Amino acid sequence: MVNRDIKGLIYDIQGFSVHDGPGIRTTVFLKGCPLHCPWCHSPESQGFKKEISFMDMKCIGTAKCGLCLKACPEAAISLGAKEWSNINEEEIQHIAVDFDKCSKCDGWPCADSCFPGALAISGKEYTVGEVVDRVKKDMEFYRHSDEGGATVSGGEAMSQFDFTLNTLMALTEEGINTALDTTGFAPTDKILATLPYVNHYLYDLKHMDSAKHKEVIGVPNELILKNATELAKNGARFQIRIPVIPGFNDSDENFKALSDFIVSLGSAVDTVQLLPYHRFGDVKYERLNRKSPMPPDILPPSEESMKARAKQLTALGLHTVIH
Hints:
This protein is an alpha/beta fold. It folds into 2 domains: 7-48 and 126-322, TIM Barrel, CATH 3.20.20.70; 51-122, 2-Layer Sandwich (Alpha-Beta Plaits), CATH 3.30.70. The chain has 11 helices and 13 strands. The mean pLDDT is 95.
């Protein structure tokens, strides 16, 4: 029986998503991930607790607002730099956030007082029922979209297993097509428990060398590969996702091993998605007062190299796309 009162911690719900599974989808992004991929472009997804971020471009200045200065009980917010605003054609006195002083107090009064949204909390609790109600608002899009529906993503959605399973069950009860975006790093019995309620798995494969996988990402890959194999044996449908990271997994040797493994999954694989590395997440690290773990000299792969990898996989009979 579905428990629609279970709560999960979510950092975003995105409607009209076209890259998180087939058709038009609503993607539910859960917080928390046991992997530590240095190229992660959503650092707000990594932690398992709520956290605050500051987007200075949204700050309208203390002359027009400044409410957060009084709201913070730890005096972690003070006057910051003055900057010229081309939008308002005036100099704005921004705030400065001392993240070390921030106690992550209950209620987050600083963010509540910030009506422009410059201070924002990453992470909000939802019940399963609330998520389903939100997803159902987009039903009209799903009806006019081939296999459109809802995708439960992360972070790593399996890290909040009870919430994820009950959400998938509830969506299935409503007749909504479901996808689960996962790293595959979860107990096998739990990931197999989702199978009756998942139409597509968006399954990440990053590197076939387990030692290299653990060195860079923090966990080995044996469980990930085992779970993919077990899901395929039991009738799962996959969109395999490969982030292409220069200097990490873009070698001929690794792509040969990846393609061999994907082929071994047989007809379970509908599509292989190649995801070229980008640096769009760098600004998000800044908003969280963190430094991107990716060296600044790592650049996105060339269009030519991406096309070559796609051609390599296509030659093996794998429907391959670049996103």
